[in-house]
Amino acid sequence: MRIATWNVNGVRAREAQLAEFIQREQPDVLCLQEIKAAVDQLPQWMIEVDGYWCRWHGAKGYSGVALLIRKAAVPDQPPFSHPDFDHENRIVTARVPGLTVASAYVPNGGKDYAAKLRFLESLDAWAARLAAGGERLVLCGDINVARTDLDVHPKERKAGAIGQRADERAIVERLISRELVDVHRALHPDDDGLFTWWAPWRNLRARNIGWRIDMILASRTLTARSCVAQREFGSSDHAPLVAELTLP
Question: 212 is in which domain, residue-wise?
Answer without folding.
Answer: 2-246
